Every structure is written in structure tokens, then in C-alpha cells.
Amino acid sequence: MRRLKIVTLVTGCALLFALPLRAQSGAAKCDPSLDLAHVQGGAKGRLQEDGSSQTRHILELGKKAIPLLIACLTDKTRSKSPFANFWPVTAVGDIAFFYLCDLFTDSTWEHSTIDGVVTWKTLEAEYPGSPAWGAWFDFLKTRGRRHVQKVWYEKWEKEEAMIFWDDNEQCFKIGSPATQRNARP
Q: Which of 52, 49, 20 is nearest to 38 (CA)?
């Protein structure tokens, strides 16, 4: 009887510890073709205007790039060099966040074209007066990369059919291209 209890306990523990590993293996991985660890940053403006090979690839993917970038949000792989000026370090997930925010920012650089997700405006509101890198890292400490990814995935799943590329604004928007043509978010 004692042996049966031990076998049951060991089997139960093995299953319990195996479940999280199985769940994690089903999570989307960052697509290496995006090559975010090697993006050279520092230029002023939105990333869609920088002309890097990674950006050209992302723009060629169009709307298909959005879930790929969302999958990268949890990637902690360090970039070759800090992506943004004055940032001490950057990871692939940080760069994916930059891309998502910029791809949903209008040509004035002031208005996000997506709501209900974590953006620079979210960080600015939660950590006023903090530098961007400080606000981002503090947010990650309290909420985590998975939270950021979850919020973006939920929005993607809800709005995917309504997301379109606005050629005039050079950004993604949500809605109908015909009704949004001259509207500012």
C-alpha cells in the first residue's frame, strides 16, 4: 500500500510539473525571419520610415506582421546593441513593442490608431516624468511581458478583420478604409 502511495505521488508530481511545460511549448515563438535582434535603431521618427531591411520585411508582410510581432513581445533575447538612444539594453521583445506602437501611430507621431492595448501613452500615463526606458522596464516589472502580449493578442483577435494599412498615414488603422480616409483617431 505504501509503495502504491509513493508511485501515485511521484506520478502526480510528474504530471503536475509537465503541464506547464506542455502549455509553454504551444505558445507562439518569435519568428527569426524578423531578425529583430539586429535592427539598428536610434533614428528619429516611426520605424516604418527608417528603411532597414527588417522594416522592409515587416512592411512587405503587411498585416501578417502584427501577430508575428506580438509573438515576439515575450522574447528576452538581447539585441546586438541597444536599439534606442539612451536605453541601457534592449531585448527582442522591446523592439517588437517599438514596432507595434509605431505601426499603429499616425503620421503626426502623436496619435495612436489603436486603443485598449499597452502603448507608449499607457506608459507615459502610468509613469509620468520617467524616461521611456524606465517606464517600460517598471511596467514590465509590475505587469510582465506576458500581460503586454496577452492584451495585444486579444485586440488582434477581436479586430483583425477591421485592421487595414492607410497609405496616406503610413500606419495601420482599425475600421473601414472608406470611412477612415480623412479621419484622425
A: 52
How many Cβ atoms from other residues are within 10 Å of residue 86's Cβ?
9
Local structure of 144: helix, strand or coil = coil
Q: What is the pTM of this model?
A: 0.80
DSSP-H helix ranges across 28-180: 53-61, 65-72, 92-103, 120-126, 132-142, 145-159, 177-180
Contact in structure between 164 and 148 (CB atoms under 8 Å):
no
26 grid coordinates: 504551444
Q: Which of these ranges, 62-76, 77-91, 113-127, has the smallest mean pLDDT?
A: 77-91
- CA distance readout (Å), 88 to 15, 85, 124: 41, 9, 19
Q: Are 87 and 45 in contact (CB under 8 A)?
A: no
What digits encode the pLDDT tens for the residues 126-160?
999 999 999 999 999 999 999 999 999 999 999 99
- Give rounded-to-5 percent helix, strand, coil for the chain: 55, 5, 35
Contacts of 9 (CB under 8 A, 6+ apart): none
